[in-house]
Specification:
globular; 303 residues
Amino acid sequence: MSKYLISIVGPTAIGKTSLSIQLAQHFNTEIISADSRQFYKEMTIGTAAPTKEELNSAKHHFIHNKSIFEDYNVGAFEKDALQTLNELFKTHDIVIMVGGSGLYVDAISKGLDDFPEVESDIRKQLNKDLENHGLLFLQEKLKTLDEKSYNTIAIDNPHRVIRALEICIGTGKPYSSYLNKNTANRPFKTVTIGLIADRDIIYNRINQRVDLMVKTGLLEEARDLYNNKDLNALNTVGYKELFNFFDSTWTLDFAISEIKKNTRRFAKRQLTWFRKDKTILWFDYQTSKDQIITELNKKMNSQ
């Protein structure tokens, strides 16, 4: 039998974690997380990381395995995750991967894209532009040079914006034109399933999740991290808005409303990213586990 990686994708708050555990239990296997925010052990509530009960329901990898003080990127994750998969496939025919970070998901199933080298001065100038003019200035520049990337990358992350811009400026070609050129050979087959719902349902689930995060201690978690707010890991939705509240720039109600708004925007970008992949098997978020397993078995048996 071939080795299969079942990858579960979809917008935030759609139910990926719950499904991944159900599938892991059914196939008697383990789970690899491809959520770039859940790596960090200091960030639990604001990243909607699996609960202790969920972690005990199936063995997880790459959950709270790093500190916000460590440098960790998609290249390092690709190397670490492939090594872990190599070990897991020695004793399992199927492994589950779950996550909403499209770049990290694709790094495992397809491999990272190759980008040409560009002059280091370009990045230095972009960092100066960020400092002098703000992130919005860079976002607008990216929208002009590469609207496709503007609509798909983590636009609120200045490092991602600068990376895309330096490729655009340094090569004279859109950053997006270098994506998905080559698919790496993997010693396993990937079957990707996506969970989806109507936009209003997704947005309502996001709003409810944020309210639950606040109720269960998000403010306290963010306050404990406030002194390290300049770290890249903390430049993320759910924390940066509350840092503005702690700075007395925003009211609490406004900060929470911004978390909801920015999370909804993030969900929209996730869907834009995943919909590029025409091989994904999409299911309504309420589809039963048994129906999904039936379709998965059909897909794996046909490959």
